[in-house]
Amino acid sequence: MSGSRTTYRKRLLQARRHPLQTLLSVVILAVIAWIIWSTGSWLILGADWSVITENLPLFAVGAYPENERWRPLLWLALLCLITAVTLLRPLIASKWRISGLALSWGWLAMLPIGLVLLAGGAGLQAVTSRNWGGLTLTLMLTGFSGLLALPLGILLALGRRSKLALPRHLCRVYIDGLRAVPLIAVLFFGQLLLPLFLPVEIEINRVLRAVLAFALFAAAYVAEDVRGGLQAIPSTQLEAAAALGLGPWQIQRLVLLPQALRVAVPALTNQAIGLLQNTSLMAILGLVELLGISRSLLANPAYIGRHLETYIWLAGLYWLVCTAMALMARQLERQGPSSATSAIPS
User: Which residues are within 8 A (CB) of 209 and not within 5 positions of it... i.e. 6 or more apart?
Assistant: First the structure.
């Protein structure tokens, strides 16, 4: 108690010695309070959220057939459920806790389940990708692009560290070339120019073209993140693995890659979040994901002038999804750090 009083007295004396600094702090706090008050009052009393409340299904599933909307909504509900289970897993008693392996398989199963529900199959009516949109399309693009980019990035990272000259130089040219090109140029080539080079009878789905463009672009950045993780592993572990009689591929698979991927988790999380946000570029090229839905709504005469409400809602939705991704990645970092990562400050 006496210590807190002493600290309080020191702060009062400091405030008396520096009155200008104290006045500036008071003014800054007053400005922050005014901004919070005015923003909160506008959000509650001044904003017209009808553009959001009247179009929630459109933000969720886009132009999906109305009588089949339960399919993408079911997939979104499953994603919310497995996200909640993942985030709440440390708070659940050990006897009721789902194992990490089962949870990993559950996440991997989300993409094929979503594809079957959206595209049709297993007795469901077929729905073309032209009718996909909204949050469903955003998550589908992010999920499949990341699923393809991760193994491709790992192969590129291993190839760049190879002792063979040809694979090393080819991987280096690919990585440096893709990192030197803006993403919008890659997407533009995949969506508009690639069909011009293909025979007329061959037509690649627009969503598939977008997934491949995102995956090829993101793989170059993933490769550098994984290469940084590989370089963080001390060479003594390679020598120990070789002394145990492990072959080159066994060393990569059992010793190097598990530790490198754990080291690279923060950087890979940034790539995943950036990939999710970069899907908004597809609104320029015709796919109606979240930003495309917002632009189409703002073109409606009934919602003219509702730009601020629409983009605040859009920013909040992106923030919610990105925060969930960051929290799950942080939870993955905390699970059994290896000796290589324990020496690295968080």
Answer: 190, 191, 194
CB atoms within 10 A of CB 250: 13
Question: For residue 236, which phi and psi values (nearest 5 degrees)?
Answer: -65, -30
Burial call 25-60: b when 16+ CB within 10 Å, e when fewer: eeeeeeeeeeeeeeeeeeeeeebeeebbeebeebbb
Among the listed residues 227, 262, 226, 256, the one whose alpha carbon sits nearest the alpha carbon of residue 241:
256
In whole angstroms, what is the distance from residue 182 CA to residue 317 CA? 25
Convert the pLDDT of each residue in 24-38 to its tens digit.
Answer: 878 899 999 999 998
Give the chain's radius of gyration (CA, Å): 25
Structure-block tokens of residue 163: 């002792």
pLDDT reported for residue 341: 38
- Kindly report, residue by residue over 212-228, the tens digit of the pLDDT: 999 999 999 999 999 99
Lowest mean pLDDT among 89-103, 255-269, 311-325: 89-103
Q: List CB contacts of 178: < 8 A, sequence separation 6 or more.
A: 186, 216, 217, 219, 220
pTM for the whole structure: 0.84
- Give the CA distances from residue 240 to residues 93, 255, 278, in Å, rounded to whole numbers and listed in that order: 38, 10, 42
Q: Which two tokens stand for residue 154?
A: 């790992």
Q: Measured between alpha carbons, how far is 284 from 90 in angstroms, rounded to an integer?
A: 41
Q: Which domains does the chain have, with CATH numbers?
A: 47-335 (1.10.3720.10)
Residue 145 has φ and ψ, to the nearest 5°, of -65, -45
**Cβ atoms of 226 and 235 closer than 8 Å:** no
User: 10 Å Cβ neighbour count for 228?
Assistant: 14
Most confident of 91-95, 156-160, 251-255, 304-308: 156-160
